[in-house]
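User: Thanks for the earlier help. One more: Spore coat protein Z. Can you show the sequence and predicted structure together?

Assistant: Of course, both are below.
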Amino acid sequence: MGCGRDRDDFDHKKRNCVCEAVRAIKDIQDNAVDECDECKLDCFLEPLGSMVSPSNQRPNTRIFKLYTKKGDVFKAHTKKWPYKSPFFRVKEIFDNCCATLQVVKHKCSREMNADSEDEFFANALGESEWKLTGDCITVDLDCFCAIQCVKDVHVDLFCDDNDD
């Protein structure tokens, strides 16, 4: 089924778990809560900043990756960057399980040396400085079978694709 499908908003038994996780991430980003949980990498973990993320500023973004039903990492193109990025921030959810995702990259992406795209992104996970790109993608969350929350970070919510 695609965006705009006729589905009851309250029929949670039929709702995709990736959709539910992205909804939770959006709610957590929008509403800072002061509760703690012992699980360190759960996408439903509140508040932002509960996932391990060294930063001098309060996190405002939960970076995540999505996996297709075939098990491949979903990636999106960005301007002025050599690789497709697998990292996203949820901007909006609409029509039950459609979402606008903003592509996220780490600030040192141009200086990092890597022999492969996989090595490049493995190195990126250790980076503490992340940045929004000006690139967004609209997706049907029902098309994904898994989500992996990477880390909570602070990003400047006013993106500027002119630097790096």
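User: Great, one quick takeaway?

Assistant: The longest strand covers residues 130-140.
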